[in-house]
Amino acid sequence: MKIEKVTAGLSIKRSVDAGTEEQQSIVRDIIQDVRNNGDQALFAYTEKFDGAKLYSLKVTQDEINEAYAALDDQMIKIIREAADNIADFHAKQKRETWLYTNADGSIFGQKLTPLDSAGVYVPGGTAAYPSSVLMNVMPAKTAGVGRIVMVSPPGKDGRLPAGVLVAADIAGVKDIFKVGGAQAVAALAYGTESIKAVDKITGPGNIFVALAKREVFGDVDIDMIAGPSEIAVLADETASAKEVAADMLSQAEHDTRASAVLVTTSEPLAKEVALEIEQQLSTLPRADIARPSIAQHGAIYIAATMKEAVRTINDIAPEHLEILTENALEYVKDIKHAGAIFVGRYSSEPVGDYFAGPNHVLPTNGTARFSSPLNVDDFMKKSSIIMYSKEAFDKHGAKIAAFARLEGLEAHARAIEARNE
């Protein structure tokens, strides 16, 4: 693993994956096919890509009951507790409609309205993600979204993982469908015989899901185009090399393109972490994923001062940031760009992934410079309220008409002046 000193000209590489022209073409064809042929296209693609021949897309109550039976009671209890923690955190984000009255009697405000519907994509593939269900559904439920639809690719047996189904049921999802990939995104965006179209699509997926979300954006809203997972660790000599290495590998095992970076003021720690990562990789079950991630996208940077280290972190703008330093809380005020900030040795990144409550759907690929974690506001619309009083209209009408004429919009001006005739 490369170790290098921080320099003023340190270049942060961004790995935006826009897909190949062939992938983009495949996605467009799939979307058009779903728009034209509905469920028939979904059945065909599910058999082709997932190896499952289905006759019904919707998950039945029997399947949900079987999922509960397949899970240990303690695991079900843990999922319920995690759901409660996530709900409690997001409840604090919820805002209400507000109004105020000016001295002249005019009333202004903002009306908040939840979306009518939302679609949640839960990835399948190399792992099952009950946590992704909770993190996408709970803020939508808190916002008051009336209809939440979940889609996820089935296994070859035509079923969804037990943990995913139990998490969806605990979160209160009523419409769960066994379909994934670009075809699932198309179904959510445009509707089929079984799946009614939604207003917004959230949730991560592979490159075909990401490209499909980009393609349908505008017809529906989306959360973000999520890239590979990232972690940056800000550490000094007080940090444990074993803990830092374990935390970096916790993200590297997600994806061969995932990024794990350490920025430290301690050269001895940097060398220890590099050795520790190699040692831990030797026993990691997903080493075939984590090793290329570390080799191609991992890095250790040594900074001369903590100020320089913090500046480097802000340049990276990581999805996840851990601060493992003496007096770690003091550095939070200096962090401008990070999706989620984990402070102190007991706040290992998986604490946020699964259980603490804050959302784990976070901006990647440096987009933490201008975007935020998935939150309740993402599932609400804001409408401005304007109620001008006669006093205000009489006082400012001529000014408004003059402004309209400055822009060459005579009808605008006349719309004001008609009220004075």
UniProtKB/TrEMBL annotation:
<feature type="binding site">
    <location>
        <position position="412"/>
    </location>
    <ligand>
        <name>substrate</name>
    </ligand>
</feature>
<comment type="similarity">
    <text>Belongs to the histidinol dehydrogenase family.</text>
</comment>
<dbReference type="GO" id="GO:0005829">
    <property type="term" value="C:cytosol"/>
</dbReference>
<dbReference type="GO" id="GO:0008270">
    <property type="term" value="F:zinc ion binding"/>
</dbReference>
<dbReference type="GO" id="GO:0004399">
    <property type="term" value="F:histidinol dehydrogenase activity"/>
</dbReference>
<feature type="binding site">
    <location>
        <position position="353"/>
    </location>
    <ligand>
        <name>Zn(2+)</name>
    </ligand>
</feature>
<dbReference type="InterPro" id="IPR012131">
    <property type="entry name" value="Hstdl_DH"/>
</dbReference>
<dbReference type="Pfam" id="PF00815">
    <property type="entry name" value="Histidinol_dh"/>
</dbReference>
<keyword id="KW-0560">Oxidoreductase</keyword>
<feature type="binding site">
    <location>
        <position position="407"/>
    </location>
    <ligand>
        <name>substrate</name>
    </ligand>
</feature>
<keyword id="KW-0520">NAD</keyword>
<protein>
    <recommendedName>
        <fullName>Histidinol dehydrogenase</fullName>
        <ecNumber>1.1.1.23</ecNumber>
    </recommendedName>
</protein>
<keyword id="KW-0368">Histidine biosynthesis</keyword>
<dbReference type="InterPro" id="IPR016161">
    <property type="entry name" value="Ald_DH/histidinol_DH"/>
</dbReference>
<comment type="pathway">
    <text>Amino-acid biosynthesis; L-histidine biosynthesis; L-histidine from 5-phospho-alpha-D-ribose 1-diphosphate: step 9/9.</text>
</comment>
<feature type="binding site">
    <location>
        <position position="412"/>
    </location>
    <ligand>
        <name>Zn(2+)</name>
    </ligand>
</feature>
<feature type="binding site">
    <location>
        <position position="254"/>
    </location>
    <ligand>
        <name>substrate</name>
    </ligand>
</feature>
<comment type="function">
    <text>Catalyzes the sequential NAD-dependent oxidations of L-histidinol to L-histidinaldehyde and then to L-histidine.</text>
</comment>
<dbReference type="GO" id="GO:0000105">
    <property type="term" value="P:L-histidine biosynthetic process"/>
</dbReference>
<dbReference type="GO" id="GO:0051287">
    <property type="term" value="F:NAD binding"/>
</dbReference>
<dbReference type="InterPro" id="IPR022695">
    <property type="entry name" value="Histidinol_DH_monofunct"/>
</dbReference>
<feature type="active site" description="Proton acceptor">
    <location>
        <position position="319"/>
    </location>
</feature>
<feature type="binding site">
    <location>
        <position position="251"/>
    </location>
    <ligand>
        <name>Zn(2+)</name>
    </ligand>
</feature>
<feature type="binding site">
    <location>
        <position position="353"/>
    </location>
    <ligand>
        <name>substrate</name>
    </ligand>
</feature>
<feature type="binding site">
    <location>
        <position position="183"/>
    </location>
    <ligand>
        <name>NAD(+)</name>
    </ligand>
</feature>
<keyword id="KW-0862">Zinc</keyword>
<feature type="binding site">
    <location>
        <position position="206"/>
    </location>
    <ligand>
        <name>NAD(+)</name>
    </ligand>
</feature>
<keyword id="KW-0479">Metal-binding</keyword>
<dbReference type="InterPro" id="IPR001692">
    <property type="entry name" value="Histidinol_DH_CS"/>
</dbReference>
<feature type="binding site">
    <location>
        <position position="320"/>
    </location>
    <ligand>
        <name>substrate</name>
    </ligand>
</feature>
<feature type="binding site">
    <location>
        <position position="254"/>
    </location>
    <ligand>
        <name>Zn(2+)</name>
    </ligand>
</feature>
<feature type="binding site">
    <location>
        <position position="251"/>
    </location>
    <ligand>
        <name>substrate</name>
    </ligand>
</feature>
<feature type="binding site">
    <location>
        <position position="229"/>
    </location>
    <ligand>
        <name>substrate</name>
    </ligand>
</feature>
<keyword id="KW-0028">Amino-acid biosynthesis</keyword>
<feature type="binding site">
    <location>
        <position position="121"/>
    </location>
    <ligand>
        <name>NAD(+)</name>
    </ligand>
</feature>
<feature type="active site" description="Proton acceptor">
    <location>
        <position position="320"/>
    </location>
</feature>
